[in-house]
Design goal:
By secondary structure, the protein is mostly helical. It is extended.
């Protein structure tokens, strides 16, 4: 028994030092080289922080791009999926209500043109991004409400589209908060 206890204690101590000390320090050091220097990338408007780029926010006014729905009601401390599958009646009811709401506010759009991401919540419930198609489907509404040419809204989307890392990892995306700040900056 002694032959097993001593190596097990040594291994446990080594892993505690590595996983509880060295690993967190290494991750914190790497974070210092990211946007926001490990504290999160803040988005500012008129010198005031309006949110974090990596945490989704709820936008419901017609003059803004709408975010992906959140199962966590956009609360970062409660981020989680709904855990409801496509056969769950409550889930189906929620999705149908989101489709109806979207169509009511975007009368020029047909039901089949609505990207799934605009009516289904992400796994974390805090997704800050949309696909370019998810943003473009909202252009007519925003252009009409803001009384600006649709081409100008499309240009904002194009200017804020982030391509995948090395063109390989993931689809193109646009950050909804950054798009909405860019819309508000048009008034300057």
């Amino acid at each position: 028994m002694k032959t097993y206890i001593a190596p097990a204690l040594k291994l446990s101590l080594i892993l505690i030092v590595i996983l509880s000390g060295l690993y967190p320090l290494a991750i914190a050091a790497i974070g210092k080289f990211t946007p926001g220097h490990g504290d999160g990338e803040t988005v500012t408007y008129k010198g005031r922080v309006v949110g974090y780029a990596n945490i989704g926010q709820k936008f419901t006014k017609d003059q803004y791009f709408w975010s992906r729905p959140s199962a966590a009601n956009y609360q970062a401390d409660a981020g989680a999926g709904s855990n409801k599958g496509p056969s769950n009646p409550d889930y189906i009811k929620d999705v149908k209500a989101r489709i109806d709401t979207f169509l009511k506010h975007n009368p020029d759009i047909k039901r089949e043109e609505i990207p799934a991401e605009l009516v289904t919540a992400s796994g974390s419930g805090l997704d800050p991004n949309l696909s370019p198609a998810g943003a473009r489907v909202q252009v007519a509404r925003i252009a009409k409400i803001r009384n600006i040419p649709a081409e100008q809204v499309v240009k904002i989307i194009d200017d804020h589209t982030e391509n995948p890392l090395f063109g390989l990892f993931g689809p193109p995306k646009v950050n909804v908060l950054k798009l909405n700040v860019a819309l508000d900056e048009l008034k300057r």
